[in-house]
Write a structure and sequence with these properties.
By secondary structure, the chain is mainly α. The chain has 22 helices and 8 strands. The strands form 3 sheets. A 3-stranded mixed sheet has the order 3-4-5. The protein has a 3-stranded mixed sheet with strand order 6-7-8. A two-stranded antiparallel sheet has the order 1-2.
């Protein structure tokens, strides 16, 4: 009993220590990140540094020059860190689902610096996605220096929850987001340190930083009876907007890859086009938080809302697809509010009372939820930001109704689709990922009968009798598998050589085949064992029996289930 109490006390100290440490680190770095972006955004928006006169008109080129500078820094970061592909929340999700491929800390830091540069320079990108991945990266980095019995996914979840908590000032949403969007399961061992990290990040942010509400919502929540029918009817429009936004991101990246242009050229093109568009439509530059608040206040009418919606989607897709890397969450909020404003304007034209703020907030939550694949977390963010039960319920209706469509037509989230484009299907579950990452190399058995091509059937029968087996493998002098011989074929061969009687094309497995592939391959197999060969040379390396294969699969499945339930 005393030993159990001691172990429990030590575990509590570890949980509080790790959660508190990660939460504190993330709070300081996240607030420094957000403050830095705000500082450069204010500097860019409030200063007229470059102005030219053309055809009697004055044009302010500050946004274009700032984006060119940002593009140059992005190119420098790519070269210094040797970045091949920018990393984001999709990589955090994938790393949380498996342990074979470690999270790349160097690329995570480089991607965060690039996202900061893009957002600060005026790129039409977000900041919360990079903060989430940075939180995951920092959590894994802490694990390398602070060892404990906690798994890598717990450290990662602590960092993610703390990033959302510090970024939005929403600790409960941070906890749910880490489990819902990243870990994809709840466990007793994980929820305690993740909760401590999230609450710590929020407390540190409030104590040491002058945090203010991200969105200015002054209107009182309307009656749910009036707003919910409108949201249910409008949910297809919200879903379509979310799908168009996500498809635009995917197609822009695909187009950039197809061009064959260098990464440097693509980044400069994105910066130039976005900067030129920003001269006439400055609202689409940067995070767009000020524009979101203006839309919530009703500062834009229908034509302007439609223009902002279309151009914001196009510029975000251009920037992210062409390598001016950043987050997709803040632009999703912008798209959601713009769609909500359009729906509100149309509803008013049809005689519906003015429900603009409620519809815009609900649409904002719905588009964001569709993009990140975290409906409950999105609703909780609205609840914690607005402190309004009515707004949260309205957001819940819009989120759930729209996600029914996007889940069918697009997928669970933009991040899941990114992984699917890379050949990783999270819909198969953790077990399938784990089985696909475990190869046959560690399951080789040398308990088999080997005969030469010139051996007789009688000789093969004697070897099989001594080994108490009913199969033998015919191997050439170079070790290459020539065929598989059954006891019946050996009897038929008698005093003749076995080569002409053996099965020259037996069922084969390669050394680098996964357990998942092996299970599918042997689904119709009948026999004692399956040969495992080298893919290039066909050299016989060993065998695996059905029993050993099933045991290996069961062991992997048990490990995954233990992680999910512990």
């Amino acid at each position: 009993m005393q030993s159990r109490i001691k172990d429990t006390g030590i575990e509590l100290l570890i949980v509080f220590g790790i959660g508190g440490l990660i939460g504190t680190l993330i709070a300081w770095t996240s607030n420094a990140y957000v403050s830095g972006v705000q500082f450069f955004t204010t500097l860019r928006e409030n200063n007229s540094l470059f102005e030219i006169s053309l055809a009697g008109s004055q044009f302010e080129l500050t946004s274009l020059v700032c984006l060119w500078i940002a593009a140059g820094i992005v190119i420098l970061i790519r070269r210094v860190f040797g970045v091949v592909r920018w990393h984001g929340p999709a990589d955090s999700i994938y790393h949380a689902q498996q342990s074979k491929e470690p999270l790349d800390i160097k690329h995570g830091i480089a991607s965060t610096l690039t996202a900061f540069t893009s957002a600060a320079g005026g790129g039409s990108v977000g900041q919360y996605g990079p903060l989430v991945h940075f939180g995951a990266t920092l959590g894994i980095a802490v694990k390398r220096f602070v060892s404990s019995r906690l798994s890598h996914e717990v450290y990662l979840g602590c960092g993610v929850a703390a990033a959302i908590s510090a970024g939005f000032g929403a600790p409960i949403a941070g906890i749910v987001f880490a489990h819902e969007a990243i870990l994809r399961h709840f466990s007793v061992r994980a929820i305690a340190p993740i909760s401590i990290a999230s609450v710590t990040a929020s407390a540190v942010s409030q104590a040491f930083f002058n945090t203010s509400a991200t969105f200015n919502i002054s209107a009182s929540a309307p009656d749910l009876v009036s707003v919910i029918p409108v949201l249910i009817i409008a949910s297809p429009i919200i879903a379509i907007a979310a799908i168009v936004y996500m498809e635009a991101l995917r197609r822009s990246a695909a187009f950039a890859k197809q061009t064959g242009w260098s990464a440097e050229r693509l980044v400069i093109i994105a910066a130039t086009i976005c900067g030129l568009v920003g001269i006439w439509i400055p609202e689409i530059l940067g995070l767009g938080i000020g524009t979101i608040n203006a839309m919530l206040d009703g500062a834009y009418q229908l034509p302007a809302l439609l223009l902002l919606l279309v151009v914001k989607i196009a510029m975000t897709a251009l920037c992210i697809g062409f390598g001016l890397f950043g987050g997709v969450f803040s632009p999703a909020l912008f798209v959601g509010v713009a769609v909500g404003g359009v729906i509100s304007q149309l509803a008013i034209a049809l005689g519906v009372p003015d429900l603009s703020v409620a519809i815009s907030i609900a649409a904002m939550a719905a588009v964001a939820a569709n993009v990140i694949g975290a409906p409950v977390a999105a609703v909780l963010i609205i609840l914690e930001l607005t402190q309004s039960y009515a707004y949260a319920v309205a957001a819940l209706m819009a989120v759930m109704a729209s996600m029914l469509l996007t889940h069918r037509l697009f997928g669970h989230s933009f991040f899941d689709r990114q992984l699917l484009d890379r050949g990783i299907d999270l819909a198969l579950g953790r077990e399938a990922i784990a089985l696909s990452q475990h190869t046959l190399e560690t399951h080789l058995s040398d308990d088999y009968v080997k005969v030469n091509e010139t051996s007789t059937g009688t000789e093969a029968l004697e070897l099989m009798r001594q080994a108490d087996q009913t199969e033998a493998y015919v191997v050439s002098d170079s070790g290459r598998l020539a065929g598989k011989l059954s006891v019946h074929q050996a009897i038929e061969a008698g005093d003749q050589t076995v080569f002409q009687f053996a099965d020259a094309d037996p069922m084969l497995l390669n050394l680098d085949d996964s357990l998942q592939h092996a299970m599918h391959t042997v689904s119709d197999f009948v026999g004692e064992s399956v040969p495992i060969i080298a893919r290039d040379t066909r050299e016989l390396l060993g065998v695996i029996t059905e029993g050993d294969l099933f045991k290996a699969v069961i062991d992997v499945q048990s490990t995954v289930r233990h992680q999910e339930r512990d």
